[in-house]
Request: fold
Amino acid sequence: MTPATGPTPTGPAAGGDAAAVPPATTADPADQRRLLDLQALDTALDQARSRMQQLRQDPRYRELQQAVADRQAEADAAAVALEQARAAVTAADAEVAGVRSHRERNQRRLDAGEGSARDLERMMHELATLAELQDRHEEAELEAMDAAEQAEAADATAREGLAAAQRSARERAAELKAEADEVSARGQDLTARRAALAATLPPGLLARYERVRARAGGIGAARLVGNHSEASGMPISPADLEAIRRAPADTLVYCPDSGAILVRGDDA
Reply:
């Protein structure tokens, strides 16, 4: 069984409609700051996609599926062994019944005195042989019955193990589906909010952001805090920082390490 995971959270692909608009090199500082909100939504969408992929590839569920397959194989083997054991009991019963019938028939003839003295003597010897044969067949019958009881117990244990494995797999599948439904709903909400925000941004700025984000591994814009780039997590060299500070407020500046758009604050 495969857990249902719902639709994957969606977002705009890099190089989509925004790619047809010439990327901007300048933007109002207020619009630049709104890129941070867009980036937050895109990061949340990326996380939702990643989580959905993790749910689809859940290692615990795969282990439980393998356990179900293993228990199924054991249950199948136990069922075959039980069928064979029951067939052996039936065959042993038939052997005992055949010998008993033959012995009873000869006993009746002997008791009736049918046949010559030689025939009667032969029947007496045959009866003794049949008694020994019946004893052996009855012993084999008991052994077959004991083996069948053990096979029945093994079959019941195997079926219980299979049922338990199937139950665990179903429970995990239900857990995965429940979380996947939540992630899908969150992804749909994020996608709608993302589309609404993107529609308010200048097309050229959005195009630049999308292009940068595609190149920078998912980070299109980040804050510049002091001399620290939140895009790369690294401090910016004094020379690069001076060039950024000298740039007009409406000029887009970039992280030297990651290439992401740096959104300057009041201290930049």
